[in-house]
Design goal:
By secondary structure, the chain is of the alpha+beta class. 45% of the residues lie in helices and 17% in strands.
Amino acid sequence: MSRATRVSTIRRHLVEGGLVDLGIDEATQKAGDPARHEADGFSVRQHTDAAGTLVVIASAYGPNWVRTLAEISSRLESPQVKCTVISEALDLGDHEVITRWATSEELQARKAAQQEHHASLTAEFARQEARKRAEEERQALEATGQSGLF
């Protein structure tokens, strides 16, 4: 069982990430159209999942609510916050995600994926640098009047 996730903690992380808390009440969150609001922002509410664990539902609002929802997910799944965001759940609107604390296994999997991604980027950078050096050497030889044998 995951540990309880509190609204105040999630709200603080999102506000520190630069998002605006609109403070929309729970009834409006459940029935509202996300694009109806004039300002881009978010609102959060407490929820109990099927396992009985307290989780938080974060909702994005405003004319650009899709971007706001992406920012919510990105901020909450960042290494310093360590949450898991679930967008596919019953009774959730398109503009809502469930947030809970990430388990150790989830954090380790994220770290491994990040290291793998970093390793592939480093290898690609090294290949590009090698190609660039080879091209510069070829151009230097041509500039001195020599050409390659092949």
